[in-house]
Each structure stands twice: as structure tokens, then as C-alpha cells.
Amino acid sequence: MSAPPISVLTATPEEAEAIRAAVRAPDLGYLGPHTRLAGPEHVTGLVALLSDPAVSGPIYDLPRPITPETIAAWVAEADRGRLAGDVLLTVSLDEAGEVAAYSRYSVWPDRSSAEIAGARRADQQNSGQGTAGAARSFGFMFEVLGVRLVGLTAALDNVRSARVIEAAGFVDMGERLSIAPDGATRRSRYWEMSREDWLTRRRPST
Predict the structure, then answer these.
(1) Rounded to an integer, what distance in angstroms lies between the CA atom of residue 191 and that of residue 121?
(2) Which of 16, 60, 118, 119 sits 20 to 30 Å CA-CA off 101?
(3) How many domains does the chain have?
(4) pLDDT at residue 157 tops 90
(5) 54 inside domain
(6) Domain span holding position 17
(7) Domain holding 52: CATH number?
């Protein structure tokens, strides 16, 4: 299950409410023209995407087994979280309108913090799209949702994700224990980045 970053920030009530408002009515334009809030119409595509072990295998917080029923419930739960201001589930569609990727943002407004889990269809991995999409997702959390800290985890053997995370400038914080919805645990690599560091990296050098 999602867990807040190890580093603890405290948001003012005004900051926390602004983050909740951004989650409830997100401006998805930052993520590109093919990004949508996940809804019932995307359940079949999400099942197809996540039924591939190469896609879903490394992700600890997905519902199991992956069936139309479990994914429909997962999508509905995420929408309730959006209305509460602390979860966003999005999908990225390919040119044919099929689900090519998903992202699930967990947000802790009172701590001005967030994390993301997600995956891209196997035929689009190693194409550069994942790296570009990850960069947009990181920027979305900092610049659109307005959080000041992002924490990320990846399985110890998930070299692809680790490479993308470190290339974006996240700081390796060692390992932490991740807990799956069924209570199973695993050791994960863990990184953090502050909004200040993100904006510094994005600012053109002079």
C-alpha cells in the first residue's frame, strides 16, 4: 500500500486545501493530450495492460488477482480518493485510443507530499516514452498538484525504474519496507526529491 515519504513536512491548512482542490479537479494538460482520468470505460484496457506480468509484476500495490471486477473496484476506489483530494488514477491512451499506461498518484495534503506508481505497456518500454512520461508526472506533482516533496519506491530488481528515477535527480535514501494490499511485504529501493530541487534542475543555467 502507498506510504507517505520518510521525510516529514507539515503543510498549513491553506496549502493542504489547495493541494486537495488540485487533486479533485486536476489540470491534466501538463501530462499531455492523451491522458485521461481513469473511469469505468477504461477498465477493459487496464485489465489488458495489467494482465501482462512484464507490466504488473514489479508493482506491489495493485489489486490481485487482476480481473475486470478487481480493476473496476480499484478504479472506483481511486475516484472516491480523488473526491477526497488524496488519490488520482490516470491512463495514457495510444493513437488507437487503447490504454498504453497508467499512473496512480497518492497524495498526503497535510504533509505536502505525494508518490506515484505506474506502468507502461511492454511494447512501449525502452522507447523513451516512459522516461518522458515519468518526467511529466514528476513535474505534475510539484507544479500542478503543488506538493513540496515526492517519495518513490521500486522493487530491488527493477533496474529500469531506478534508472529513470535517478536520471530525474531523485536522491537515493536506501531501502524501505513496502506492504501490498494483501499484507505481503517486500524490501524496496526508496528515493526522495523536494520541489525546490526539482525547480532548480528545471531552471535554465545562465
Answers:
(1) 24
(2) 16
(3) 1
(4) no
(5) yes
(6) 13-148
(7) 3.40.630.30
